[in-house]
């Protein structure tokens, strides 16, 4: 197996591993508001998150950016909590500030934090040149994200159908809104427990 494919494999398994639950939770929080017909909006958000974490992954892995890992590990669940709260607070995206178009920027900024988290894992694996391992690891991370988001899409679509069956016809909130609030609340509760366990003081 080549060095490149080895690091692709490591990146893929790092994001899909249950040990990376914080990153999986963040992707779930990002995806919670979208339906299949919203694929363009979700693509912009995921792309912004990718750009954000790629920037700090490169900077932190090369040593150009030094952030204490205990603060990074604490900040990651805070990004999850903020995303979940935003999901719940914004009922109508068309009436949100900028009609909700701030969300890619939101995801990009939080991606910066998550990239630093990936870097703390990756730095321990370097033995020589970092360009190829860094690129391979990032490719693996993206493949892992696609798998996670694909699985999340199936689960969220199933939740919509379940809520549609359980709620009385014509009542509010809609099945989609029930799904958004339920998933976001679960994510926020789990992330809050992570933040409490990782507090740096």
Strand count, sense and barrel status of the largest sheet are:
none
Order of helices and strands: HHHHHHH
Tally of separate helices:
7
What would you call the structural class? mainly alpha
Number of domains: 1
What does this molecule look like?
The longest helix is centred in the last third of the chain and has 36 residues, at 131-166. The protein is 74% helix and 0% strand. It is built from seven helices and no strands. It has one domain (3-198). With 201 residues, it is mainly alpha-helical. It has helices at residues 3-16, 21-31, 39-61, 69-89, 103-122, 131-166, 175-198. The chain is elongated.
Short description:
The chain has about 200 residues and is mainly α.
Descriptive labels:
single chain, 201 residues, 7 helices, mainly alpha
How is this fold's topology laid out?
Blueprint: H1 3-16, H2 21-31, H3 39-61, H4 69-89, H5 103-122, H6 131-166, H7 175-198
């Amino acid at each position: 197996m080549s060095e490149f494919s080895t690091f692709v494999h490591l990146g893929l398994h790092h994001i899909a591993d249950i040990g990376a639950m914080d990153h999986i939770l963040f992707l779930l929080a990002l995806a919670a508001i979208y339906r299949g017909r919203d694929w363009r909006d979700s693509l912009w958000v995921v792309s912004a998150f990718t750009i954000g974490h790629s920037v700090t992954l490169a900077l932190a892995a090369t040593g150009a950016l030094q952030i204490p890992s205990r603060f990074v590990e604490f900040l990651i669940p805070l990004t999850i909590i903020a995303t979940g709260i935003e999901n719940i607070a914004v009922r109508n995206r068309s009436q949100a500030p900028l009609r909700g178009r701030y969300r890619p920027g939101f995801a990009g900024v939080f991606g910066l934090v998550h990239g630093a988290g990936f870097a703390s894992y990756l730095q321990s694996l370097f033995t020589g040149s970092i360009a190829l391992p860094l690129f391979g690891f990032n490719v693996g991370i993206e493949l892992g994200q696609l798998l996670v988001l694909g699985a999340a899409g199936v689960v969220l679509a199933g939740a919509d159908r379940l809520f549609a069956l359980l709620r009385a016809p014509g009542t509010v909130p809609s099945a989609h809104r029930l799904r958004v609030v339920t998933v976001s609340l679960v994510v926020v509760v789990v992330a809050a427990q992570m933040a409490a366990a990782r507090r740096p003081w």
